[in-house]
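Entry type: protein chain
Record version: 2
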Amino acid sequence: MAELEERKRIRIAVDVMGGDYAPDEIVKGAIYAAQKDDVEITLVGPDQILKAQLANYDISGLPIHCVEANEIVKEGESPALAIRRKPNCSVAVAAKLVKSGEADAMFSAGPTGASAVSAIQFIGMIEGMERPAIGGGLGNFAPDVVLIDVGANVDCKPYQLLAFAVAGSVFAKKLLNITNPKIALLSNGAEEGKGNESVREAYTLLKKSGLNFIGNIEGNDVLTGRANVVVCDGFVGNVLLKFYENMGDYASGWVKQRLRKYPPLRSLVALLFNKLFPITKLSYEGEDEGGGILWGIDGIVRIAHGASQAQHIAHGIASAKNAVEADIVACLKSDLARLKQEDKL
């Protein structure tokens, strides 16, 4: 961290070609971030596209640089094959900048698989984390709750769930300022014997881990704050998160339908739901603290929803900066090393 303190700005490598609205919204968002968040931006993409985009803005005095990457990973391509066949694609080059020390973090709104494969191949994993995991906050309804994993891993072994719990604990401590986060396994019952084989075995590992493990919780306890870190595989976590983040839209539509005979009241519904039901499009508007980080990578990798627009891109870059400042990678390394030394991982 001393090296970071000596530098004026944290450096973020931005994959300009990742996302539904790339490159326009990505570049616009990166410029917003450079203007307001005191970060140094390296835009990664085809040289001609970068020049054409930047010609639309006055960036004089802004800490914005360009690195050419002449290949692009397209939506629907196999991540592993794409990165192997296109080693100079924008997301891979961004990862290489982190590995070489030319960037402190990378950011991409492109396919999650391509970001994960690039990060694993070119940055590497932390010892003790076999697979990266994505942690997600649950917004204003549960501001002190982290759900991990929310989509990176479909099938998980028990010791991998333990590693996710360690990552979630670091998330809660370093980014949510919770001193001793309570950790729980998401299961179909609160009793120790509940859950599938992986969850039952993970329960035993977590009991012995020294973490503040409180046991299993069911779905009805996720938002209560009974646990600060809710651990599950990415299949369960992704289904739960997508259901949760769409509740606002469906509830708003249901109320509007009910009030269709009362136009004055109906017109107030959208405004009220935006204020009182703040989870609509949570996946790219509500990732306030740590959401979208690939935990377990030996560097900061921040991913974002493909539909992110400029304000979401700027927000994601700011959260990547926060993760660098919190030194989450070093903290996770330390906690995993301790468990390994104690023969608990």
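Comment: DSSP finds 14 helices and eleven strands in the chain.
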